[in-house]
Amino acid sequence: MADFIHVELKDGIFIITVDRPKANALSLEMVKCLQGAFKDASRQAQARVVLLRGAGDTFSGGQDIYEILKAEGASYRKHMLETYNPLVVQIRQLSLPVLAELRGTAAGAALGLALACDLRIAAEEARFVVGFLGIGLALDSAVSLFLPALIGLGRATQAAFTNEPITAQQALSWGLVNRVVPSKDLQTGAYEMARALASGPTHAMGLAKRDFNKAIYPHLEQVLDYEAHIQEIARAGAEHLEGVRAFVEKRMPNWV
Question: Which phi and psi (to 5°) does residue 19 adopt?
Fold first, then answer.
């Protein structure tokens, strides 16, 4: 599974790349590998900034839905407490600045990981999809906290309830991303942005990040735990069963 997560340290930039066929869909083991990668970044004396990106033409479509199917009967809350929840906390508590390089789609739990990062640069064609309600689930990976904090509750609610993608230009105007560039310039632009951060006062950035966490996200861990509790309720419901069936059968769900 570690083959799907690649790390590289260059010019003070600790690059973490998610690389898996079929939209870089995340498995629970991959998330644990990401935990290990961020832990490695925190231990590297030469690392001054982390750059998180997806290989190919997309960031990540989120949690692998077929793995969800295999896990029927298992505790979803337990999965969250062991995987996405600690990873989100890890990203927020990392003393280094974390930049997300976003192309294609960032959906579901992958959207939560992107929002946990300090800064985001996106390609012009990038889109951001809450996704959970499309398969009859609620929210997790701190999307319920990060998304309204960045774009406001009204816009976050609309994105969640309708499952409509947020375009890169909307994301820029709403404050969801910090910069949008042509797709061909994304990798270079992200690297330049990361180098600029790496050449700055990264210790002070880490301290400022602690300030932001205290001011804006003081209850992050409680929110994550509550999301996991609510998600387990949603996962046991008929809507989730219909949503997953519709996804597998490649049809629109029938919620009524």
Answer: -140, 95
Domain that holds residue 86: 2-186+195-202
Bridge pairing between strands 13-18 and 49-54? parallel
User: Which pTM was predicted?
Assistant: 0.96
Domain of residue 140, CATH code: 3.90.226.10
Q: Kindly state the tokens that stand for 245.
A: 């069936």
Q: State the Cα–Cα distance between residues 136 and 241, nearest whole angstrom.
A: 7
Residue 1 is predicted with a pLDDT of 44
Report residue 158 as tokens.
């609309």
- Whether residue 188 is predicted with pLDDT greater than 50 in this model: the reply is yes
Is the residue at 241 inside a domain?
no
- H or E element, residue 14: strand 13-18
Burial per residue of 236-249, b for 16 or more beta-carbon CB atoms within 10 angstroms, e otherwise: eeeebebbbebbee
Predicted local distance difference test score (pLDDT) of residue 2: 58
C-beta of residue 218 within 8 angstroms of C-beta of residue 226: no
Q: For the chain, what is the domain count? A: 1
Residues 6+ apart with CB under 8 A from 74: none
Are the C-beta atoms of 136 and 240 separated by less than 8 Å?
yes
- Give the span between the Cα atoms of 38 and 179, in whole angstroms: 24
The CA distance from 123 to 31, in Å, is 24
Residue whose entry in the numeric block shows the structure tokens 């999809």: 129
- Say how many CA atoms lie within 13 Å of 250 toward its Cβ: 0
Nearest to 246 by CA among 137, 138, 106: 137
Q: Is the C-alpha dihedral spanning 32, 6, 52, 138 positive or negative?
A: negative
Beta bridge partners of 18: 5, 54
